[in-house]
Amino acid sequence: MQRAAYLVEAELIGSFAIPALQEDLETLQNSDEIFYGYWIDHRLAGAISYKKEGGLLDIYRLMVHPRYFRRGIGKALVSFVEGVEEGIERIIVSTGARNLPAKKLYEGLGFRDIGEREVIAGLWITHFEKCKRF
Fold it and tell me: Per the record, a Pfam family (predicted)?
């Protein structure tokens, strides 16, 4: 599912240098990220992973299988994580600068664009953050 989702992003941003496209199952299993999945009819339709350190929640991956695009799965996964983790003061996430659907999703969820950065030659990412007010 990860490969299918990130191949779509690679096409959108014009670069196949996305690290997630180079990972295998063993790499994912050995990561120290927290994962949640979104299932439809016993099929994994989407997933989110993140790390939490103190009041900071860093979303590492948000992926939806292309078969399930535009069904609110990404929004549901981010909202779920916001609700399940306590003590979050700030959430950060990044996406390809030319990935307009992802950027629109994060902005719709209340994230603000905090800038772009070229991570390798020709590959730009946009960073987002959301500060929680309690």
Answer: Acetyltransf_1
Q: What is the pTM of this model?
A: 0.88
- DSSP-derived pairing of the beta strands 56-64 and 123-131: unpaired
Select from 43, 78, 74, 41 the least CA-distant residue to 57.
Answer: 78
**Is residue 103 within 8 Å of residue 111, measured between CB atoms?**
no
What CATH superfamily is the domain 2-131?
Gcn5-related N-acetyltransferase (GNAT) (3.40.630.30)
Residue-range domain boundaries for the chain: 2-131
| Residue among 3, 24, 2, 6 nearest 96 (CA) | 6
Element (H, E) at 84: helix 73-84
Q: Could you report the per-residue pLDDT of 14-39, keeping only the tens digit for each?
A: 878 787 788 888 888 889 999 999 99
Name, of 5-9, 13-17, 39-43, the range with top average pLDDT: 39-43
Q: CA distances (Å), 56 to each of 43, 52, 104, 126, in order?
A: 31, 6, 22, 18
SS3 content of the chain, % helix, strand, coil (to 5): 35, 40, 30
CA distance 93 to 122: 20
